[in-house]
Amino acid sequence: MxxxxxxxxxxxxxxLARYPEALLLCGSxxxxxxxxxxxxxxxxxxxxxxxxxxxxxxxxxHMRIGALVTLNELLRSDVVRASLPxxxxxxxxxxxxxxxxxxxxxxxxxxxxxxxxxxxxxxALEATVTLASQEGxxxxxxxxxxxxxxxxxxxxxxxxxxxxxxxxxxxxYRKAGMRERLNIAKVSIALTQGHGGFRISGASxxxxxxxxxxLEALLDGGVYDDxxxxxxxxxxxxxxxxxxxxxxxxxxxxxxxxxxxLSQPEER
Amino acid sequence: MQITCTINGKVHRFDCxxxxxxxxxxxxxxxxxxxxxxxEGECGACSLFVNGRLVNACLLLAPQIQDAEVVxxxxxxxxxxxxxxSFAEHGAVQCGFCTPGFVLRAYDYLSHGGERSEEAIKAAxxxxxxxxxxxxKIVEAIVKVKS
Lengths: 268, 147
Description:
The complex is a heterodimer. In chain A, 36% of the residues lie in helices and 24% in strands.
């Protein structure tokens, strides 16, 4: 295997242009398992030392979270807890302490798991990802970054940061799974209700996290009827029946979570 | 590739493939307190410190410990003495396979000022599994570590 270490962003994008099929190594929690289970990747580009991809900052009502920020850094950040409590609540349910010390925000986004809680929360928060290549940078709404199961729109690019508008109003985050800790989501729901109305997304309810727009419109219109909520959920989601649970179960739990979100939201 | 790091204060050099797991390297270097459990980051039996952060050695690849300071239970005998004694006193051990991971997590938690409530300790142990089902005594042992 060809191992290449990038020490700055310019080096990383140059290597990526030269080896477009390379596997990027940052926290390594997903990469280590991929290397063990999949056929050998020819090239590994290690980006974990890139200072440009670290740290959290706030400017103009937005938070910029570097792609290499770990889940524990996110969880312990006072500014994240104060300004994006939904994201902090989500990080709290993510993996274990040891995994949160390694796993990065950018890695979780790029890995594109249908069960990725963090990306569902970020979609509800209307996050934008910044992608860099040798040609320069571009920004894409996170929702539009995905294109099916484990599919992203990365094109010889790496994720440098995610930008999130600071949260206002009521919010809700909940995850259901087989056990309380170190859990892969059977269903998770992220909801915010601010000046722009409802923003709702979920994990394990389709190949990618998406905004539940039919449901949002319904709730924005003041319709809280059970049958209508169920119908909207079915049209907005595409849950698979996998080994972790059935489609009917996922829909039922999602419905119960939406009801709970409407009756007992948290407030910021 | 060549990897150089310190393990418990001593310099080690490895000639290894980039996809080698840190778990295997440290065990080959003689640190057998680092156990090969699930191999998927679920059980925490392979927990060790890299530059002060507790991580799963099974999820870490060789290049990530280049120039790093790696510390295992072997290198923390004095620091963990009170925790190990408390585990022994409370019978917080059955087969013992998970114990080094639990002791390191307890040390990490307590040395960062972790709260001594059962609820907080249970949450802190989210990355460590004991398949002998000994959690009750493990939590008790950590609550009662002498400071």
